[in-house]
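Morning F.,

Quick status update on the modeling queue. The single chain you submitted on Monday has been processed. Sequence for confirmation:
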Amino acid sequence: MATDVAIRGWGMLPQIEAFLEVARRQNLSRAADALFVSQPTVTARLQSLEANLDEKLFVRTRRGMRLTEAGEAFLPYAERAVQALEDGRERLGELRSGSAGKLVLGAPPTVSAYALPLILARFTEEHPSVRLVLKSGTSEEILDMVLQDQVQVGLMRSLGHPEVQSVPVYSDTLVLIAGPLHRLAAARQVRLADLAGEELILFGRSSSYQDFTSAIFRQAGVLPRGVMELDNIEAAKKMVERGLGISLVPHSAVTAELAAGTLRMVDLSDGAPARREIVAVRRRDAGPPSAAVAAFMRLLAELRDQLEHGATIGEPHGL
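Structure tokens below.
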């Protein structure tokens, strides 16, 4: 029944347009000219509409076509129907151009806190009508959200999976940081062995950074004096600033503190380079991207150099 009504509604559109034009101009000939059809066509459309509604909508007078009481009652609904159709067409045009719609993103805290503000500021400036939804989790959790269709695009460290497509966004270097008054802060270079006996500050209990940092120390045979495990990177940075220990963090997370001098980067002479590739992932079977997703992916490509520079400026030779 609903489908029949919808089909009948679409078929009535030319009739409704004829009704509105005649009501506006009160003349069949002028209405036909405005619609670029013949006068008999306008007459036929009005008769079909009246038959569909089972009501007489106009009376012919010496002054022209005048709305009946039923016509007056139907007029505002006809106007709203045509306006709704125009609004719908405009909305579809916005969706095609990427200027409207919804964009659902997923990213771990280290990406959403330090890289996404730049990206989303540009995106919302260019596409203010797109509604943004951001979900957070570890890179493994973001990957699962992509696979489960819970997010359209995941920004995360590179994790190989056959069901997703990955596009590089930027590379982030892991750097060793210390407070400005720490004994290691003034050294040009230090060896991993020099870190023995230091307090090690870890962040993100469920993230891969903890495991990675612990593995570096374990493989080097370096035993820290103690380990402080914190929930997030901001807390870890504050602890390091106060001289309570050292930490291995993404460079993008400490760019401001390094520039301000509240943290110092420690160059490890014998540490293997540690870079994390941040990628944008989508399901392989997701089909063509929506206009909003396509616009977002184009923006990532445009900002790659800026993101790369922000993530690696002042990069150490070692870690």
